Amino acid sequence: MHPYALLAGAICSELVGTTALKLSDGFSNPLPSLAVVLGYGLAFYLLSLTLEELPVGAVYATWAALGIVGIAAIGVVVFDETIDPAGVLGIGLILGGVYVLNVVSEVSAH
Fold it and tell me: No. of H helices and E strands in the chain?
C-alpha cells in the first residue's frame, strides 16, 4: 500500500482516538474508552508501516501537524469550541510547514 495512504489512515485513526478520548469522560464511559484504545492502536500500527518507506522526521512532523489541525477542526465542529484569528493563523502556519516539508523540501521522499 502507498505510504502516504497509510499515513492518512494513521492520522484518521488518531483523530478518532482523540475524539473518543474527549467523549470517554476520564475513561468512565466504556464505548468511547474502547475507541480510544483501538484508534490509537491502529494509528501507531499504520504509522509503523509508513516508517518502513518514509523518513521518520517527515512522517512524524506530518502526522503530528495534521493531527493538530484535524482535532482543532473537530473541536470547532463537534464540540462547539472557538478559535480566534491568532489560532487560525497558527493553523495556517502548521499547514504551510507540512506543505514545505512534503513538497518543497528534499527531506521527504517524492
Answer: 4, 0
Question: pLDDT tens across 28-61, in order?
Answer: 999 999 999 999 999 999 999 999 999 998 999 9
Residues in the chain: 110
What number of CA atoms fall less than 13 Å from residue 38's CA on the CB side?
Answer: 8
In the block, residue with C-alpha cell 484504545: 37
User: CA-CA distance, 88 to 69, in Å (whole number)?
Assistant: 10
User: Is 98 in contact with 66 (CB distance < 8 Å)?
Assistant: yes
d(CA 63, CA 70): 10
